[in-house]
Amino acid sequence: MQVRAVNRKNVSQADPRELVELPKESARAASRPGALAYRLLQSDWALSLAIGKLDPWVTAQVFHEATLREGQMLSRVVLSYRIENAAVKALRVRIPGLDAAAAATVRASGPAVADLVKVEGKEDTWEIRFQRGVAGETRVELEYQRRSKDDGTEQLEALTLEQVRQAAYFIALRTAGRLELEVGALPRGWQRADWAVVQSTLGQAAGTLAPLMAFRVADPEAPLKVVLKRLELAELQRLRVASGTLTTLLAPGGEALTAVDLKMEVVGKGRLRLKLPTGAELFNVLVNDEGATLVRENDEWLFYVFPAPDAGMPATLRFVYSAGTGKATRLEGPVLNVPMEKLTWRVLVPEGWHMVAHDGDFDLKQWSVLGAFRLKDYQEFSETKRKSDSLRASAMLAQANSYLQQGDQEKASQALGNAVRSNQLDEAANEDARVLQYKTKTQQAVLGLNTRRQRVVLDNRLSAPPGENAQLERATAANPLMQGKQNFDPKQYDRLLEGNTADENAALKEIANRLVSQQLAAEPAPLALDVTLPERGTVLTFNRSVQVDGKRPMSISLKLKRDASGFSWLALVLCLLAGAMVAMRRRAL
Questions:
Q1: 257-300: pLDDT as tens digits
Q2: Closest CA to 320 of 240, 241, 245, 424
Q3: Tally of domains in the chain
Q4: Could you tell me if residue 120 is inside a domain?
Q5: Single pTM value for the model
Q6: Would 61 be classed as within a structural domain?
Q7: What pairing do the DSSP bridges indicate for beta strands 340-349 and 239-250?
Q8: DSSP 8-state assignment for residue 563
Q9: 379-394: string of b/e by CB count within 10 Å (b at 16+)?
Q10: What is the distance between the alpha carbons of residues 432 and 397, in angstroms, rounded to a whole number?
Q11: What pLDDT is stored for residue 308 in this prediction?
């Protein structure tokens, strides 16, 4: 309500702020907004007042956030209203460009919001209804989404706030996924805004994450046109070589034997492509110390690389190949379709030769001379390797038993399979590992079949009398596979089969035995013979930090020269002496 003076006699108007010395109640009344104060000049004063009803004065600050995704555009609009003079119970807002499906997604929230209703007879207009008459400041948040256009363009339109006398409107554009935005000429009423200015104006309503673009909108003439560009998805790499060592043994005739040992970071089972130098012969491929099944495709070898049995450990890859070096003694490395880093190439130069110069993709870091590699050294190396492999297989079997006690069935099966296929255990331990592997897989198969049976019982439980088989219901409730888990405690194996008759359990075990027998009888990956490279002569160590080009092979060019022998100098001296004696004899004759 507003009060104004219409007629006055012997009365003068005063400033209400001057009445601070009055009693407390009078001073409080004089300080209210719209209060009038008058000074009485004579006793026969007269004052006529007119009382009128004021319309609400509504202002707003708007933060319109549009997020463009593949196939849809999400919009979030924060309306910060400031209502003066009078309270309002409803405000209207127009959201253009929504079809029937998009209109069904419009939602409103806020501390004083009661409902959001579409206004009949008015296109794209909604009414925000409050719980009570609202005066002062209030906040309303609108959310809606709609499908994107198929032509790669979008039109962004500002909302129209009815009953609002003045508004500060800001729009922020964001993207998600592989999208890039481009904006052409701005229509009249659109102006780019600095994000710092937007934050200082809107405060917490703008948030802290900076958008790609921000605009200030005032009386726009047309919507903003946005062009979407989809970026190509980069190829994801499941495999990466964390470190690697190449060891090449050179022969005096120009042949070379190279052993490659790689440690790989494996996210998941991935296929690896291996391309050897022209004319090279591949001897073996070992993945995690097991033979790999190879497939030949043109001039490439294809095989799978699996994660290491021990969680957190890198997978190992070893392969050996032979290739000629040619007259220029150029060593060419293998080509893998994965990035590699921390590479070391050790070249074993045969006895009686030394390097004069080198060139290529690696840097020389060390030069050392080793002694001869005799039969005794090879026997000692083989014996040490055999003992090491046996200890590793025994540790793997012990780790498998530990996994079983912890209930980790997947890791236990993998560790048992590696221990059995390694052929490094003694006869008794190998038989124990084989029996334990068969028992573990059989229990897993029986529990899987029983879980399927329990699922069928649950699906048809309505047709059976309640409480007919309480043991089966308890076993079903305790079955971890029914809860989406893959591991179970072997000690609870019998408990999980409760509710079954003896004939039913016997039938499940018979089916499981046939399944497991067929799986274990399948031909595993071929066993590959490992190749030992005798380290003798001169060892040249080269390093390279990273190799990312999976099409160009790495190479090292060496210039070797044969060492001068003491016997050749002696022969030359004897030849000279013999020639001198023959010449002296001819002169004497």
A1: 899 999 998 887 888 999 998 888 888 888 887 778 888 988 89
A2: 245
A3: 4
A4: yes
A5: 0.50
A6: yes
A7: parallel
A8: P
A9: eeeeeeeeeebeeebb
A10: 9
A11: 80
